[in-house]
Amino acid sequence: MQTGRLIPLAKSLVAVPVTVLGLSLMLAVSPSPAAAVDTLTAPTTTAPAASLSIPTPTYTSTPQTPAAAAALKPVSAQPSGSTAPPAASNAAPASGSSTAAPAGATPPAPPKELIMPNCPGVNLRSGPDVKNEILIEIDLSDTVPVLEEKGDWYKVEYKGVTGWVAGWVVTKCSASLAGKLIVIDPGHGGVDSGAVGRTGLKEKEVNLDIAQRLGKLLREQGARVVLTRETDVFIPLYDRPALANRLHADLFLSVHADSTSKSDINGTSTYYYRSPEPSRQGIFDRSITLAKDVQKSLISGLSITDRGVKKSPGIGFAVLRESLMPSILVETAFLSNSSDEAKLKSPDFRQSTAVFIARGLTDYFKSLASPVRF
Ligand SMILES: [Zn+2]
Prior knowledge:
Elements: E1 14-20, E2 23-29, H1 66-70, E3 113-116, E4 123-125, E5 134-137, E6 142-145, E7 148-150, E8 153-158, E9 161-166, H2 167-174, E10 181-186, H3 203-220, E11 224-227, H4 239-247, E12 251-258, E13 268-272, H5 281-301, E14 306-311, H6 318-321, E15 327-334, H7 338-345, H8 347-367, E16 372-373
Parallel strand pairs: 10-11, 10-12, 12-15, 13-14
Antiparallel strand pairs: 1-2, 3-6, 3-16, 4-5, 7-8, 8-9, 13-15
Bound molecules: zinc ion.
């Protein structure tokens, strides 16, 4: 299976086998203790009550090593010992205020959603105060309806458990790259060279080098990064977004170099995809924000022509059209232009390109920092 070889190791994470309520889990943890932001002032509460349903992480692909497992996110979760959907089988998060207003008894869900990031310290607690026990730690970036608000706390249901999340923690984590799962797709590879410059520079090599540099920068900032290819191999087009979908990545970013028959055309463009499906409007909104932030950062940092943010042409680039998360495709420069080709050949330019893409991603996540949206 080709995709089995595509998953690099997340160097910042290690897999730790643990047993919780009889379930064997592989937890991904950072070797250096990360600050648990909402536990800074929290009392020393103990483990969740024994009555909780602990979801069992499952993975759709088989990691080859424990470290590879750490790069993956759970993609589905079922309450243990039950085949019912999480909402119906809500096994009752411990007693206390969180059970006072079960989801079914509240008025129709208000049109407010909480963006819950997967970040150390984002906990679901039994009540709207850090003194309340931690029912479950958020381990998947998700958007969920807000059931109730109290001060800066939001009551939500997550994986069948109803509890409270601190708004300031969500804000802090949303603005950070820490814990975000980012899939970087170096375009082309193997028999598919992509564009080839006049001096013979191959797009597949440039794309891979920039992607690897970007991956390193993002990992240094705490992100979890998976490349669709780590080497010069051919990866079918649809396998690329499929990998990001399987991993439930926070975003997908494809790296390419441009080419055209007109050799005087040069510059950088960033593409997004707009789906006609209303249900994907939210993804589109975030994709265009992402595209604007990355393009703006690239133009501010690179000495290169600004060709702007563009809608994916025709029916859309497959890698963007098939991605079920915010996604963009960066055309770094033109291999068909001799000046741009010289830039793409330069390690300094490649590094700068990676640096300013990374800054654009940081700007994007900061723009999501408001914990709720309407
Ligand atoms: Zn390309």
